[in-house]
Specification:
By secondary structure, the chain is an all-alpha fold. It has a domain of about 40 residues. About 45% of the residues lie in helices and about 0% in strands. The chain contains 3 helices and no strands. The longest helix is centred in the middle third of the chain and has 17 residues. The N and C termini lie far apart (about 100 Å). The relative contact order is 0.04. This is Anti-sigma-28 factor, FlgM. InterPro entries: Anti-sigma-28_factor_FlgM_sf, FlgM_C.
């Protein structure tokens, strides 16, 4: 093994210039995009909305039903049979 002294150890390293930074270009400014709100009303929703357009008729019908409930005549076996028949018809036709 030959030891030749400290001069053989890599020596002084050159100093490099700092890297030149490219100027940053700004992107074209754009207006912020704001989301749009949308509402879709189903056919059932429109139908329910139309029901409220005739308040006189509905108030009269509501008064009749309240009176029938107060009298104890609102729920009858005939009405229950009619309602069950209509429900079963709708189920048979695939409407429910």
């Amino acid at each position: 093994m030959d030891v030749t002294g400290p001069s053989t150890v890599n020596g002084a390293a050159p100093i490099n210039r700092p890297a030149v930074m490219k100027p940053v270009t700004r992107a074209a400014q754009t207006a912020p995009i704001s989301p749009k709100d949308e509402v879709e009303i189903s056919a059932a929703g429109r139908a329910l909305g139309d029901l409220g357009k005739s308040p006189e008729l509905r108030q009269e019908r509501i008064a009749q039903i309240k009176a029938a409930i107060d009298d104890g005549t609102y729920e009858t076996h005939e009405k229950f049979d009619i309602a069950m028949s209509r429900l079963l018809d709708r189920i048979d036709s695939g409407g429910v």
